[in-house]
Design brief:
It contains three helices and no strands. The protein has one domain. By secondary structure, the protein is mainly alpha-helical.
Length: 93
Amino acid sequence: MIKRNLIIAAALCAALVLSAVVFAAQAPRVTVGERHGNMRAAQELIQQAWQKVDEAQKDNNYNLGGHAGKAKELLAQASEEIKLSAETANSHR
């Protein structure tokens, strides 16, 4: 019984890690509409930066000490914050 529970727990952990990797591998999307032109432009630049970092990773055989991956995570986080700021601005109109 304990062995079965350990196998199930390991499988769940592996699924969680795999889903996090897949999520992190996706470029941020532009989610802000034209109503907020500057914030939309910022998201577009974030998307371009993410793509450049991705190209740099490929050019260097993904041997950048994890720093490029961290940069991509932070770019995705910045894009999400911009989306949230646009939503907040919308709620105040």
